[in-house]
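YM 10:42: Universal stress protein sequence, as discussed on the call
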Amino acid sequence: MTRPITAGVDGTDESLAALDWAAREAVRRGLPLRVVHAWEEIGELPADRDTQRAWAEEGIGRAVGSLTERHPGLHATLELTEDDAVDALLAAGADAEELVLGTRGHGAVVGFLLGSVGLRVVAETTRPVILVRAGDRPEAESAGREIVVGQHGTPEDSAAALRFAFETAAARGATLRAVRAWTLPPVFAHSPGSLKLLDEAGGLEPYEKRALADALAPWRERFPGVPVTEHIEMGSAGQVLVSQATRAQLLVVGRRARRTAVGARIGSVAHGVLHHAGSPVAVVPQDRPGADPA
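YM 10:58: structure's back
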């Protein structure tokens, strides 16, 4: 089954930037573009719904039409629904190659605990989500701008994010920068087994270098045409990733959501990156199917 690139659009500048980004990605990968606009019912009178639908058909339809004019080979469809926005986007994203949304910019994601649509979708979807800021421009995807991906833990812990990053770099002919951040663990947290591994590796830094190299090895073999730069650095993972992605065309992070009394929440690294990264950010569920390189 051919999965489309799906964009959620509400008419704001940031969502229209996300629509442009999604169209370029669909053309690059030879995939169809699915555009979804959802709104909740705004009144009891049919005229209210008719007005909303007419606005979407005209305004968003015009934006989609402009994209197909600029990209003659692009197959794009527009879907309008009165369903709850989160439910509609989760349903549309379930069978998408990736789901593309707009984000208002630095600090906008503090609305998560208040029910931000974007972060609820990021926390609950099983597919990669790309968040694009209003100021995004095609020039940001020019040659020389890297795809940056964060790697942590074991090779399996980051397999989904690495796969997505390598696939994207291959499709764009881009260099990949793989980043692993590390911190000094509490002295009493060392088990005899971990102390033995560190001793065999020659210390913490060589151990982290080896861990990154081991995680990348199967993906380097699968994507031999993708140039890879490896970077390890001591510090907060979110801060290290943002500092390494100042000129990135895309920053890729993994995500494991956890359930709380107020709903699903994403991890601190993904949350921090969404606060501060200037480039588009891809958030990839770590347990999504197909992460194994075999």
